[in-house]
Amino acid sequence: MPVTNSPRTLFDKIWDDHVVERLEDGTCILYIDRHLVHEVTSPQAFEGLRMSGRRVRRPDATVAVVDHNVPTSDRSKPIEEPQSRLQIETLEKNVAQFGIPYFPLRSASQGIVHVVGPEQGISLPGMTIVCGDSHTSTHGALGSLAFGIGTSEVEHVLATQTILQKPAKNMRVSVEGKVGPGVTAKDIMLAIIGRIGTAGGTGHVIEFAGSAIRDLDMAGRMTLCNMSIEAGARAGLVAPDETTFAYVKGRPFAPKGGAFDQACDYWRSLVSDEGAYFDTEVTLAAEEIIPSVTWGTSPQDVLPIDGSVPSPSDVADPARAAQIQRALDYMGLEAGQKIAGTPVDVVFIGSCTNSRLEDLRAAADVVRGRHVAKGVRAMIVPGSGLVKHAAEAEGLDKVFLDAGFEWREAGCSMCLGMNPDRLTPGQRCASTSNRNFEGRQGPDGRTHLCSPAMAAAAAVTGRLCDVRELVKETV
Amino acid sequence: MDKFTELTAIAAPMPTENIDTDQIIPARFLKTIQRTGLGKNAFAAQRYDADGNEKPDFVLNQEPFRHAEILITYDNLGCGSSREHAPWALLDFGIRCVIAPSFADIFFNNCFKNGILPIPLPREICDELMDDARQGSNSRLTVDLERQVIVRPNGETIAFEVDPFRRHMLLEGLDDIGQTMAHDTEISSFEHRPSRAWVPSITIGTVK
Fold first, then answer.
1. Which of A29, A82, B17, B115 satisfies CB 3.0 to 4.6 Å to A20 for a cystine?
2. What does this protein do (chain B) (predicted)?
């Protein structure tokens, strides 16, 4: 192992502990502790194994779940769309053939892979975790090195339990201070992406640090790490601490008893050493972050809610100016207009970014005693069956249903429009998901990314607005 | 995987930053269980109108670019989702080489796994190559991976960098799973390290 006495970052430590072999040109065979599999990016990988007569090396380190394609309506009915059904049936055939643990559609624990992994204790600190999905970065919130891979790599991991990679560069994003009321992990992350851009993290793993990050609960840290990929980073990390250990303890697949203590001893060593080298350092002041939304078709198109939409004439580069114009046209916005007050047609609260119990509580706090604005379709899609169940135990379903929200079954839903939940052309959506790309939520749909509290505020007022004004009224 | 050695082909200019994988292949086309057949829906939203007719102003609907095997764009090509359907769609359309000032990491990696060569070059050079591409059907670029150069229509050569391991895999058309499996002994010995004793196994019957 290339372990030296020089100070190392959290990323360096996890990386070093998983290098099986370093090849001549510096490419490493990196061991993978957890491989999460879903229906969309795996069929071709299993087919590849079959064609070459290979087996799955570690079915006991692999877990499958269906999420992208599944309808979020009544689960007792068969899946209508034939292609979606085929993809789900194909996964079921593959997990049976290769002996892989699987959460089926009608399991009480089924949900979005990035919600289920941490919730079940399948994803743990210090691990390397991969999945054929870019938002695998979510699991970095536990202090694990987690990144998305393509289907060829899915096949590679199935066959070898390793991946070929060179080490990433280290970036540290520190957020210091305390955020104001109404400002959430989502707003912090949008501010970071707005600052560094969607390619700002390319080639890097980002470690999120600073007092504002330490103060976040695990759900918040997951929101943050989830969108590392929107900053272009390979992965996001938060050093594991007592908040992490308390979260992990007692989860179904977490180590128990003495093994948990042994693991904790190891996990406590997973912090960046004093003086460790970071290729890039960025610092933000928590006090300067206010509730934010995106205006355009890239996650870096971020505005504080009191901001105004940019104009192509603001920039010198003609290609960038053309891009702003294209985004304005696509989004149906005027250069220079205030973003607050923009009417919405749909509100989507869900996705691997913001569908955990804490997210639903934050939305419910805004909704309680109010009603969805006339003409707005508002949906709540819990991240897993267990999140849904826990929310119902607290009566959150009633808060939402009474206010006119739809209360749906777990899945990726309207984040990417692979299932029946889609925007129709021209519809404008306040969404707690992670991407506002053209067509992401349905062809010609218009997405404004925001926090669950901000999405809830948009639902009850019918417009993008500053949630702090609503919360003030309640107080 | 097909080898990539030398390619002489039409290049399509797309002077746009942040072309994401949702643009390259929208999510609704990811329901396939095969790698092939995605080319007709590559760039679907920009290529077709609501009735499925080609939009004439989109570059890949124009001659000679509908026969392009090289794509040239601006920064951060392939950002967004890890879907390998994006390179599969490009490959199925006929693209074997993508040139841009920068790429998103996962897309960059996925290209190599499918015999597509991604080449990072400074924006000024991408601009020059786009100008070459706009000269029409007689204007072809040659990408020579062995020599690591692009030959412009005027004969000028532009050198490019490529990771030696990935270059080798492309030139030989090798499957890296077979290569890694040759290290089975090392992988097994890693798995039995005492320091890994805390890592739990997941038993099939316990997941429901």
1. A29
2. Catalyzes the isomerization between 2-isopropylmalate and 3-isopropylmalate, via the formation of 2-isopropylmaleate.
